[in-house]
Design goal:
Blueprint: H1 3-13, H2 22-40, H3 45-73, H4 78-92, H5 95-98
């Protein structure tokens, strides 16, 4: 069974579809991303990865689950939208200007 089918089965078995509109999924993505970010607050990245990898995995999974659900609600294919975005990013960040440079595309 693919991932989105398992997510939907989990959701549907609990009758939660009614709560998963696009607005609330977007809010949930942001909240879960904030929980992921909170793990790193005031700590070095290396220390957090070393001591909290299980929590990182759980929060990242929550972000991805809600993201998959939103894409599914909108009949979007995750792989397609990522590939489309990569094409746009390639134009914004040409290798000759962006390689090794952390500036935003507007500053290249």
């Amino acid at each position: 069974m693919n991932v989105i089918k398992q997510i939907n089965e989990f959701r549907d078995n609990r009758d939660w579809r009614q709560f998963h509109n696009e607005k609330d999924l977007a809010i949930s993505i942001s909240l879960e991303a904030s929980e992921l970010l909170e793990l790193f607050q005031w700590k070095s990245s290396d220390k957090v990865v070393q001591s909290s990898l299980e929590q990182i995995k759980e929060e990242l999974a929550d972000v991805l689950i809600y993201s998959y659900m939103m894409a599914d609600n909108l009949n979007l294919d995750i792989n397609d939208i990522i590939l489309e975005k990569l094409v746009k990013n390639e134009k914004k960040y040409p290798i000759d200007k962006a390689k090794g440079n952390l500036n935003k595309y507007t500053e290249l």
